[in-house]
Specification:
- This protein has 104 residues and is an alpha+beta fold.
- It has a single domain, classed as Alpha-Beta Plaits (2-Layer Sandwich).
- The protein is 46% helix and 27% strand.
- Strands 2-3-1-4 form a four-stranded antiparallel beta sheet, with helices on one face.
- Strand 2 and strand 3 form a beta hairpin.
- The radius of gyration is 16 Å and the shape is elongated.
- The two termini are 26 Å apart.
Length: 104
């Protein structure tokens, strides 16, 4: 019995906090944990809204995949908007970087 491998074209996105080390060096453990919690919640919520799959998380970096380029683009825009909304009302300000590419 042979198994036919499944292949598909995916759209890959990397998301992380810009200047992570500089941003977190001055934080106490509670603010450090709060920043991670907020960032993780934003990435999870927004990526789910645009049908993204979180493949891996290392530190502050996420690797996501999407079925369509439009979903990846909309997720990136959604992440930027969520970050701006968060930063307007919080003393835990961060900037997220979004890199997307299409992979076979």
């Amino acid at each position: 019995m042979s198994v036919t491998p499944k292949t598909e074209t995916l759209n890959v996105m990397f998301v992380d906090i810009v200047d992570y080390t500089k941003t977190t060096l001055s934080l106490d453990i509670h603010k450090f944990d709060a920043l991670h919690s907020v960032f993780d919640d934003i990435v999870t919520r927004v990526s789910q809204k645009f049908k993204g799959t979180i493949i891996k998380k290392i530190g502050d970096a996420f690797l996501l995949t999407f079925q369509t380029p439009l979903d990846a683009i909309n997720c990136g825009l959604g992440l930027q908007q969520a970050q701006l909304e968060h930063n307007r009302t919080s003393d835990l300000v961060f900037v997220c970087a979004v890199f997307a590419l299409k992979a076979a």
